[in-house]
Every structure is written in C-alpha cells, then in structure tokens.
Amino acid sequence: MSARPRLVYERWTDPAAGDILDVADVDLVRLDLTADSEQGWAALETAHGYQVATRTDVASAIDGAQWLVGPSLVERCTRLLAVCSAGAGYDVIDIDACTRAGIAVCNNSGPGAEAVAEHALGFMLDLAKKITVADRALRSGPLGDRLALRGSQLLGKTLGVVGLGAIGSRLVELCAPFGMEVVVFDPYVDEATAAGRGVQLVPLAELIERSDFVQVTCPLTKETENLIGKAQFSAMKPTAFFITTARGPVHDETALHDALVSGGIAGAGLDVFHEEPPRPDNPLLQLDNVVATPHTAGITVEAARDIAVATATQWQTIFAGGMPPRLLNPDVWPRYCERFHDIFGFRPSATTILERRG
C-alpha cells in the first residue's frame, strides 16, 4: 500500500470498535467537537474514511452542522473514500454529493434492530396500558378514581408498520404473541416478501385508516420527509396511537400536536424530534398523552457493542479492499475503485452488493 489508511471518528458506541481497529493497521483520529474547528478540518482533510458524527452529537457543538457530510465537507475533504453513519439512519450524509465525488456511503443497519424494535413495542404497551400516565398520576396524588386510568390491550389490534426493514420486521415478530393483524406500507417490499413475514402490503392511506398503532420505522429520505402530516393524522382513528423510532422530519410535529390536543388520536410515543435534543418547552413534551425518549431506542448495552463491532469490521473490509457489506450507493463503485487505486496502489475486489435497506 502506498498510504496508511486514516479514519476520523467522533466517538464509538462501544470501545470494542477501537480495540478492533487499533490492531488493524489503521490510523485513528478523534474528532473533538469542542476543539477549534480548524483542528477538526485538519484531521478530516487528510482522512480516507469518516465515521460521521450523529445529528444529536453535533447539536450542542458550535457550528456543529459543519461536521455532517454535506456538499461543503465533500468538496473540502478531497481524500475521503468512504463515510459511514453510526446506525441504520443515514440522513447525516448527502448521498448524491458523495456519489458525485466517488465516495462510498455506508450505514450500520441490522445490529441495533433488536433494541429499537423492543423500544417500539415498549411504547405500544406503555401507551395502551397507560403506564406512564398512571405513574404520573400516582406520584402527583391524590390518585382519585382508578377507572380513569383504564387502558386497552394489544391482543387482536391492528398494527401498521411504515417501513419493513430490519427494525420493522423484528417488531412484527415481537408482536406475534398478541395476535395482531399487521399491515405494512413499504414501496420497496414485494408481495412475496410480505407474505413470507405474515403481513399485508397496503397503501399508506389504508394503513393510516385501519391501524390502532401506526409505527414508523423507515429511514429519512427525500421520499419520506413529511410523509406523515395533517392529512394522515386526521385520517387516523381517535383511539389510535402514533409511534416513531425513525427520524423527526418524517412526521409534521405541529400537525401531530394538533391531533393530540384535539383528541384526533389517543396518544404518541416519540423517540425522535425535529430538533434533538428537544427543548424542554417543546409543546409535545407538555402533553400527558405523549411518552417520549431522547433518541435512545437503539441504545442498549448489547446493541452498542454489536454496532461497534459491525462498524469496525466494515472499516476493516473497506481498507482491505473489499466492498462494504452495507453500501448505500452501489453506483459509486467504479469511480470509488479508481480513487482507491490512486491512493492505496491496488484495486478493491467487488463482492455481492447487499440490498439498500435499513
């Protein structure tokens, strides 16, 4: 090799990633969001790989958005060969800009699916059984009439899943003991795949109207931004719950608030917001029929380690000249290979391109 691979990262989900890469002949450089920005740019401008900081991580940093992979970063960092997001979501990366520049884009879909799916199920049980509402009432006292805290059951209800990727598919499996009818909206899933998973593919409008729980697990893309808005919330059952572990901009927060206040829907479970972390005065956080977490659905001890190992392994594959197992822009491959050869002196070897799904 004519160069030693240099990888810039903000932080690992678990030290296991660093342990793996420390012995992989990779030059690791930490991006300090609190340091002078020129220090960060000096690191990135010499980097071949960038493990991208999350949107939540950069929110508290001065000019934090500059560390997300947009056109300006791509133009400035001319040696970059590959960028990877920390989890399944990749909205922190401008895929089109990277593809034009010959930069491979990867995510880490899969390892955190169990954690997020369990979190989504937890929201469903919490909202239906009014666990958080009852907890708040009990602590504020006096309790009053317990019948006012009467909840409902999941058994026999209809679950609508928007996005049947790794997370949505696992959620369907977790809900099987409840005997729920499952309808799915996902334009990238065919009938045979849906049938194999025991779900029914339907248009989004039908899913919204039929579901007792509308669960959003899709990635944030140009197609999904503002996918759930005023019209969709208005069409939901007044007894239905809206739950999202996707990304905030997939739904309209103002329209959701209006639906919750007016009684248009029964409640919401939110792990994501337009602004993260959300401000304490966010109107949604003032409502009793909202259960919220600060984008922690995928943060478990097990998931953090699994994601770290998958992250490090993918970088090992990249720098060894293999095709990344979770490549999101396969069209970049020919140009990427040319750039890789120019830097490292040998051409990568193409392997099976995995389906672009989260």
TrEMBL record:
Could you confirm whether the keyword NAD appears in this record? yes
Q: Which PROSITE patterns match?
A: D_2_HYDROXYACID_DH_1
Which InterPro entries does this entry report, sorted A to Z? Answer: D-2-hydroxyacid_DH, D-isomer_2_OHA_DH_cat_dom, D-isomer_DH_CS1, D-isomer_DH_NAD-bd, NAD(P)-bd_dom_sf
Provide the D-isomer specific 2-hydroxyacid dehydrogenase catalytic domain boundaries.
72-329
Which keywords describe this protein according to UniProt? Amino-acid biosynthesis, NAD, Oxidoreductase
The residues covered by the D-isomer specific 2-hydroxyacid dehydrogenase NAD-binding domain are: 121-297
Q: Is this entry keyworded NAD?
A: yes
Domain of life of the organism in this record?
A: Bacteria
- Of which family is this protein a member? Belongs to the D-isomer specific 2-hydroxyacid dehydrogenase family.
Protein name, please? Hydroxyacid dehydrogenase
Source organism per UniProt:
Mycolicibacterium gadium (Mycobacterium gadium)
Q: What is the lineage of its organism?
A: Bacteria, Bacillati, Actinomycetota, Actinomycetes, Mycobacteriales
